[in-house]
Amino acid sequence: MNICIGSKNPTKVDAVKDIFPEANLIALEVPSNVPNQPFSDEETRRGAINRALHSRESHSDAIGIGLEGGVMYVGKQLYLCNWGALVDVSGHIYTASGARVVLPIEIDNELKTGKELGDIMDEYARRQDVRKNEGAIGIFTNDLISRKEMFTHVVKMLKGQMEYGKVNIKNSSN
Ligand SMILES: O=P(O)(O)OP(=O)(O)OP(=O)(O)OC[C@H]1O[C@@H](n2cnc3c(O)ncnc32)[C@H](O)[C@@H]1O
Ligand SMILES: [Mg+2]
């Protein structure tokens, strides 16, 4: 089985490796066609779908997987959100979202200045490359859940849905 994953971020690539250990994995940087910092479930999910579709453009025999991080409001409270999409060899699209965690008001204020969450997290946590390691979810869960672990759960849901086979998005503009 060939799988193209639309990112070189190790938290995303390693999550796919864990759930598809037998697959031949190709990691590619592809456009998400949404802002670098998605600001809603809608934008984040769309970014994941676009990454999945773009990643198999030159590999029609492969499954495409896109994983996208973003933020979203519930009322006035900002949360971290993550979405995944898997496109099978027939073009069926499966989607799933990851666990959410509250982001503090300081992060919300910094995001409003136009910075990306990844850069804000490094300053906030005084660590380097949080986005490629524990992630914001790791910081705000006191390292109980890592970004890779959260994506592993998303990829597991995508795999299970593909195997079940009956519930997918047929039109990529949905
Ligand atoms: O190379 P790619 O795949 O783009 O990986 P990325 O780390 O930039 O991740 P996303 O584009 O999916 O996430 C959009 C933005 O939100 C940031 N982000 C999302 N989730 C994060 C997390 O858990 N920890 C730190 N930054 C996160 C990320 O660094 C980007 O600035
Ligand atoms: Mg990015």
TrEMBL record:
Keywords: Hydrolase, Magnesium, Manganese, Metal-binding, Nucleotide metabolism, Nucleotide-binding. GO terms for biological process: nucleotide metabolic process. InterPro entries: ITPase-like_fam, NTPase/PRRC1, YjjX_NTPase. Coiled coil: none annotated. The keyword Transcription regulation does not apply. The keyword Cytoplasm does not apply. It is an enzyme of class 3 (hydrolase). It catalyses: ITP + H2O = IDP + phosphate + H(+); XTP + H2O = XDP + phosphate + H(+). Its EC number is 3.6.1.73. Its cofactor is Mn(2+); Mg(2+). Pfam families: NTPase_I-T. GO terms for molecular function: ITPase activity; metal ion binding; nucleotide binding. SUPFAM superfamilies: ITPase-like (SSF52972). Residues 6-157 form the Non-canonical purine NTP phosphatase/PRRC1 domain. PANTHER family: NON-CANONICAL PURINE NTP PHOSPHATASE_PRRC1 DOMAIN-CONTAINING PROTEIN, PTHR34699. This is inosine/xanthosine triphosphatase. It comes from Oceanobacillus piezotolerans. The lineage of its organism: Bacteria, Bacillati, Bacillota, Bacilli, Bacillales.
